[in-house]
Amino acid sequence: MIKVGIIGSTGYAGQELVRILLRHPQAEIVWYGSRSYADQKYSQAFGNMFQLTEENCRGEDLKELAGQADVIFTATPQGLCSSLLNEQILSQTKVVDLSADFRIQDVARYEEWYGITHQSPQLIPEAVYGLCEINREKVKKARLIANPGCFPTCSVLAVYPLAREGVIDMDSVIIDAKSGTSGAGRGAKAANLYCEVNENIKAYGVTTHRHTPEIEDQLGYACGKEVKINFTPHLVPMNRGILVTAYATLKKSCSYEELKEIYDQYYGNEYFVRVLPRDLPPETRWVEGSNFADVNFRIDARTGRVIMMGAIDNLVKGAAGQAVQNMNLLFGLPENMGLEMVPLFP
After folding, report:
1. Residue among 57, 81, 132, 150 flagged as catalytic
2. Is 90 exceeded by the pLDDT of residue 188?
3. Closest CA to 82 of 111, 113, 112
4. Is 150 a catalytic residue?
5. Fewer Cβ in 10 A, N or C end of the chain?
């Protein structure tokens, strides 16, 4: 059994990790880390866990936890993991970080977008960006995994095949994204109150959203050059889900069959990425509660553009599910072990 510790277990992504790992046949949770609920039963934070776990929450002592766990998940605010992590800890255990602390290789770029000083920049070069469908072999050999953000996961999976094959003008890429409110976390914020969110949709982080450099970096690695995009997220009144609609100009006229062949080349053998049938756009309701990413595209011959689309559950494929997918790779397990959840509907 893989002994698992979770720091930040009482946030939304942390609770999703618990939900998945409690039914994982090869994992045992040995540490429910939570600063807010320390010494209280985990089920006091989440009533859905009543009688499923009787464990108490513990603190955020990464040094002590490293001696007990084979892998540590850090579902924490930006800056915390980098302030706690060091070589001694990584010499004892593997770490899958769900924050943004190790996703961006350029420390100055990270500090510019996140407005904080990185506390362990010496560890950034060895961190592997844990988008399994793209970096699978690197993940298997890593000690430190930078679990991708939710918007970047959906955006990159939708655009990556065409970016990698060089059939779209990367200077023309525009990404429009919609997210459910759980993406903002469990903390109390006036902007996320029911009356503020219900019956409303709004853009936020326009030109400034922190996931922008992460998306640019990954698409830049795909096409082999620096990329700058317009990325605009929107908040919609639903609990879960991300829908991405990305636009780009085609470098030459392409048929549906040509582009479909490209998507199938990259995702035809992937368990979690489902390329939908022609003219069937992805919908968040068909991936809710699952680790699936549904993608598709449509050519607009009139404008010479292609519209690339994706849908994920932001808490599963966009966070906890992808983290467990990375754990499975790290320990040589089937990639979908513990993640075979059928999407929940209605």
Report:
1. 150
2. no
3. 111
4. yes
5. C
